[in-house]
Amino acid sequence: MCDDIYRSAISPEMWETLPGRLAAVAGGGSWALQLVRPGTPWRSAVHGVGFDPDLLALYPDRYAAQNPWLSGLMRMPALQLIRDSQILDPEELLQSEFYADFLRPQGDIHRACGMVLLRGECGGLIASCNYAPRHAESIGAAAGRILAMVGPHLRRAFELTQLFERNIICASARIMDGTAGPHACLALDSRSRLVACDTRGEALLSAGKALRLGRDRRLRFLDDAANAALDAGLGLGGHAGHGFVVPDGPAGRMLARLAPLPRPRAIAPIEIALAPERAVAALILTTPSRGGGMADEDLQALFDLTPAESMVLRQLCAGLSTSEVAALRGVSQNTVRNQICSLFDKTGTRRQAELVALVARLGT
User: Fold this and answer.
1) Which of 176, 362, 159, 178 lies closest to 282 in space, CA to CA?
2) CA 13, CA 95: separation in Å to the nearest integer?
3) Which residues are registered as beta bridge partners of 188?
4) Is the model's pTM score more than 0.90?
5) How far apart are CA 11 and CA 13, in angstroms?
6) Which one has a higher pLDDT value, 172 or 201?
7) Going by CATH, does the domain composed of 293-364 fall within 1.10.3720.10?
8) CB 145 within 8 A of CB 151
9) Could you tell me which residue ranges the HTH luxR-type domain spans (predicted)?
10) For residues 113 and 83, is the Cβ–Cβ distance under 8 A?
């Protein structure tokens, strides 16, 4: 059982099977992992087995707020096994809406044991088991022993999941150090806090001419427009769709682009608990090639263009029409129109005039 728990640290999707494995060891019961959000009324994200699927689907938005068990449990120290009889008046529970609407229809599963595994920015992560009174000596007793034994391991597995993801990002940053090109890579969470960066990123932060770290490790540009573009892109999970320009000193500039970072999916309680420290996007900063204008490779890096798209962009900026671009390249006008549509999508523009004006502002 403990081996399976620690495998969840390497493969976060394995958290999905955890309640079912706990139920199998205990011989039954309705098991759940839930993240209880801060504030009142209670809100939660839950994943469980042994519950009615329709009622469980309504639990986060309806029944969590009615659950008297949460109020007492959330006041208890982490990793302490708590039984319902320690914090609930049985008569009050049996007269509650939560009992009538959620527990009784599922076989009178109003007995429970559980523990707070950890507390964090997003709330408390709880593991629990519900069972009927007639199963108190069998499933109830076994569930208590199991939670007391595996609770510390569940907490450590979650901490290792966080560490494992952070180490992957740091290893990727070290790989970036070995690549050629004037690029810096910084991995950021949804609040623009730095998770990892390569040596070029460290050099930019040390120089402090274009970007700095705040006390909470939040990355901030010295330019307000660049900060607005960064925050908007991170709000979309790094799927910003186009790049932006960052002033670098009195006369310099850098090209910035966000790329979303893939990650394994876990069940909702784990996903939400991981979110505050999870890198969601890589910020790629490129120093433009020196010379009379922005090089094709800079345009391609800034907007994620193909060589053919950057060529079309150049020709449009030179004043050529769609038919002239098609004739010059020896392709159909439909091909050019499709490439122009792709340029609109990648640069966040809607018309050729906007596209040309955007490139002009970049100094090409």
Assistant:
1) 176
2) 38
3) 194, 281
4) no
5) 5
6) 201
7) no
8) no
9) 298-363
10) yes
| pLDDT for 288 beyond 90 | no
Q: Does CATH place domain 180-287 in 3.30.70?
A: no
Residues 261, 189 contacting (CB under 8 angstroms): no
Nearest to 105 by CA among 64, 67, 55: 55
**Range 2-164: architecture per CATH:** 2-Layer Sandwich (3.30)
* Percentage, residues of the chain above pLDDT 90: 44
The amino acid occupying position 22 is L
pLDDT (average), residues 127-137? 96
What single-letter DSSP state applies at residue 267? -
Q: For residue 82, which amino acid is it?
A: I
Statement: residue 293 has pLDDT above 60: no
| 317-329 per-position pLDDT tens digit | 877 788 878 877 7
Q: If you ran DSSP here, which 8-state letter would residue 106 be given?
A: G
157 is written with which tokens?
């597995």
Q: Which residues of 26-37 are buried (b: 16+ CB within 10 A; e: fewer)?
A: bebbbbbbbbbb
* Residue 125 vs residues 59, 309, 337: alpha-carbon distances, Å: 16, 48, 52
- Say what the pLDDT of residue 279 is: 85
Long-range contacts from 268-271, C-beta under 8 angstroms, 24+ separation: 268/35, 268/45, 268/46, 268/47, 269/33, 269/34, 269/35, 269/44, 269/45, 269/46, 269/47, 269/125, 270/12, 270/15, 270/33, 270/35, 270/125, 270/158, 270/161, 271/45
> Comparing 2-164 with 180-287, is the CATH topology the same?
yes
- C-alpha distances (whole Å) from 257 to each of 85, 293, 299 are 55, 19, 11
Which tops the pLDDT comparison, 41 or 137? 137
Lowest mean per-residue pLDDT among 48-52, 299-303, 309-313: 299-303
| Distance of alpha carbon 245 from alpha carbon 184, whole angstroms | 14
Domain boundaries, the chain: 2-164, 180-287, 293-364
Q: Are 159 and 12 in contact (CB under 8 A)?
A: no
- Give 62-91 pLDDT, tens digit per residue: 999 999 999 899 999 999 999 999 999 999
Q: Highest mean pLDDT: which of 96-110, 160-174, 196-210?
A: 96-110
